[in-house]
Amino acid sequence: MGSILSKISSFWSSADNKQPSSKILTNEKCRNCCYPKSEMQRSDVPDKYLKWETDFPNYVPISYTSDSIKGKPWADPEKLPEGHVWNQVDSQSKIDRTSHEGEYKIDGGVPLNPIGRTGIKGRGCLGRWGPNHAADPIVTRWKVDDKGKKVIHPETGKPILQFISILRKDSKEWAIPGGMVDPGELVTATLRREFGEEALNSLEVSDDGNNSMEGKIEDFFRRGIEIYRGYVDDPRNTDNAWMESVAYNFHDEDGNAVARFKLHAGDDAVGVQWLDIGRDVKLYASHADMIQKVAVRHNANW
Question: N or C: which terminus of the chain has fewer CB atoms within 10 Å of its end residue's CB?
């Protein structure tokens, strides 16, 4: 297993060919509900009061930061020192405090969610005040029949794509196998690390097959295309902490690269599978929006 994952890590590189990213700007999944893994109820935020620019005098949300992140070395302290830097990369800690959405506002010494109100203050269960950066590798292949021919959707008349999806432990929802970007880490490094940890935790590839797979792995993981870069409508978002992501698509056109791997879920997931892509797919956070962009790019069923 280790040798294959190390080769993926060595061969995965940033693609020069980037697709302009449409923005997924909404707070549908982080409003008017109970905060995940808690009994904390968000204050009601009607659509007309979403934006900070709209006066909402009755808005008095509770403040909540989960005990699960307090005192953790990878998390911000509850109170940041005076003069703390925002909207830039911290030169000492290497933590990226910039947002893909541009400069965000600071109110009372803490950042304001760039999309608007969420009904709860604090950090919730997110480690960082402000943007929490993640990377999402979308690995796809064509769904084929027993004869190796592409399966066509009966209604759209388009071929069906599949992507490697994990079943999250926390929400029991299918999701892209992504993860958090470490301080000072390149997004491409996060992509390969998280994909290896969450979806290829236990590769069943024989030693004899290693050499024959090396060239295919190298070629495959050099063809990533950026699909999305920006804010994520994540149920963990708060008024002062939120998720952002960079998503890349790695497509196995002829099914001779990762499509041959036997998948095994990592520590952060309870299941992993090739999942059919279509408009009825129910996924975690904004992942369905990212997957739709991939389907459109490949002219596949949606």
Answer: N
